[in-house]
Write a structure and sequence with these properties.
It is a single chain. This protein has 320 residues and is α/β, with parallel strands linked by helices. The chain has a single domain, classed as Rossmann fold. Helices cover 29% and strands 20% of the residues. The protein has eight helices and 13 strands. The strands form three sheets. A nine-stranded mixed beta sheet has the order 1-12-11-8-7-5-6-3-2, with helices on both faces. Strands 4-13 form a two-stranded antiparallel ribbon. Helix 4 packs parallel to helix 6 and helix 6 runs parallel beside helix 7.
Amino acid sequence: MCRTPCCVLVFLSICGADLTRPVAAQPPATSKQSTPKNSKQKQPPPFRWVNPLKVEIPGVQHATFRSKSMGVNVGYCIYLPPAYSREPLRRFPVVYYLHGGRPGSELKSVKLTAHIDKHIRANAVAPMIYVFVNGGPVSHYNLPERHHAMGEDVFVQELIPHIDATYRTIAAREGRALEGFSQGGRGTARIMFKHPGLFCSAAPGGGGFATEKRISEENGKESESLVFAPGYNAWDLARAYAQSDSPRVNILVHVGTKGFNYENNLDYMKFLESLGIAFERLIVPEAPHSATVIYEKSGLELMKFHAANFAAGPQKAAGK
């Protein structure tokens, strides 16, 4: 796999002990999982399941589907590569992208398509579909005691089947990838370990794994007002995955060296090593806690990682 000078990509043969560092205090659940020093807290906007695009973005459409579990519409954004319209018999692999923020929305990360589209049009990577997910009011978590807050289930049980039924996708594990940043990096780690049969590759980025560790150690408690089910975190789910005979997911953990979650991402990688979970890592020099900067510097590396794990060769549509 080709690598650019702006990043370091190392495949790890996994062994060793858990060398995780002590966990620092974390902010309330309504904010990001970690906060850079001297930054001002911003009040998040009200959560909505549907957030239409306000500007036209090349290759991107906003659409909705009806959630059977909630009885409401749910929005998503989808990037279709130029070949999608040119080759009507071809099926395409899909990367599902999980946004950061809490709450976020299907619009949160859609600007990454400027880099995605550029690389695909330049034939630097094979064409693929990107779907930008709405993660719910507690981003990418299930929280059954709250109204309409089953973000993971809406994604896994409803959005993925809707996308496969509506678009010419490779509707199988071999053509499906998962990626996310910040809160979406946490969500990617949890979901890839909980549902390994759904995805051939997964790339959690910049996740607040110190917060996930504390949730594990405190029996589900993230804060006084937010408590998850025991075991529902990126640490305990990784332990269960390591002991299971489920399909192995090809994993790429990525983070920028200037990101405020950099150190706890290194700790999480050491933890995965201690469990014997194979993964690759992408360290992006001088990149802050920003999915946009990560994609400016190393987006092609992330895309090539998924492309290498997708089913080889064009797929023909059957009846679509």
